[in-house]
Amino acid sequence: GAVVSQHPSRVICKSGTSVKIECRSLDFQATTMFWYRQFPKQSLMLMATSNEGSKATYEQGVEKDKFLINHASLTLSTLTVTSAHPEDSSFYICSASYGTGFYGYTFGSGTRLTVV
Amino acid sequence: DAKTTQPNSMESNEEEPVHLPCNHSTISGTDYIHWYRQLPSQGPEYVIHGLTSNVNNRMASLAIAEDRKSSTLILHRATLRDAAVYYCILRMGNQFYFGTGTSLTVIP
User: Fold this and answer.
1) pLDDT tens digits for range B57-105
2) pLDDT tens digits along A79-88
3) Are B43 and A110 inside 8 Å of each other by CB?
4) Mutation for A interface: B32, B46, B87, most A CBs within 10 A
5) Which chain A residues touch B42 with a CB distance below 8 Å?
6) Nearest residue of B to residue A42 by CA position?
7) HSE-up of residue B82 (Cα within 13 Å, Cβ side)
8) A106 with B46: Cβ contact below 8 A
9) Residues near A48 by Cβ (< 8 Å), separated by ≥ 6?
10) Which of A74, B25, B87, B102 yields a CA-CA distance of 20 to 30 A from B78?
11) SS3 at position B45
């Protein structure tokens, strides 16, 4: 149980276009989901916290107009990278809490975004 | 402002125990200590977590110092499949903040 599905696993897009990444909780309801980005050989950096039915909370330094987050249902959160540029190329990972505070989080398998 | 500190890399021989240390000197009383591991181009995988007492599960053991300022993840018999980056994470409220992690190499 507690599986998070992330789609697509990899995407290549042209500079200036927008890309949407989906994160679904398959067998549980996730009121809160989290989005991370990870550059090569580096750790995961929390970008934003996505709450179902409300606006996402962004970490300091993350542009909310650049990285649009929508969490319209208890099983789906989306991250849209708008007007993508090569510097947005990264590994994006979502996660969701599958229980009360005691139980931690499960992570998606990640999306490799390459902007050319 | 690093919340956890781990060695960048460690090596272990296959079938031997591995002790992965983590310092978290700024931990507060309500912060859980979580360990996840990540294989290349994959999302992190849960390993173990704890608050104050030592914990055991089928994957590993977690030894937490009495003052909670450090912890050690113990893999009892390392296998090649255990080669990964291991992250020690403090859960602060509802959010995870990852440290730099330890890249574990398992030598056959």
Assistant:
1) 999 999 999 999 999 999 999 999 999 999 999 877 777 788 889 999 9
2) 999 999 999 9
3) yes
4) B46
5) 109-110
6) B100
7) 27
8) yes
9) A34, A35, A56, A57, A58, A59, A62, A64, A67, A69
10) B25
11) strand
**Pick from B43, B96, B100: CB nearest A109:** B43
Cβ contacts from A onto B, under 8 A:
52
Is A110–B91 a contact, with Cβ atoms under 8 angstroms apart?
no
Question: How far is Cα A97 from Cα A94, in angstroms, rounded to an integer?
Answer: 11
Distance CA A95, CA A5 (A): 9
Q: Cβ separation of A32 and B42 shorter than 8 Å?
A: no
- Measured over the CA atoms of residue B92, residue A77, residue A90 and residue A4, the dihedral's sign is positive
What pLDDT does residue A1 have?
64
What Å distances lie between residue A46 and A37, B33, B46, B98, CA to CA? 7, 17, 17, 8
Residue of A nearest to B103 (CA): A41
Per DSSP, helices labelled H in A1-116 are none
Mention every residue, 6+ apart, whose C-beta is less than 8 A from residue B9: B102, B103, B104, B105
Query: Phi and psi for A97 in degrees, rounded to 5?
Result: -85, 130
Is the pLDDT higher at A1 or at A110? A110
Is residue B22 a contact partner of residue B72, using CB atoms and an 8 Å limit?
Answer: yes
CA distance B70 to B21: 7
Q: Which residues of A touch B36 (CB under 8 A)?
A: 107
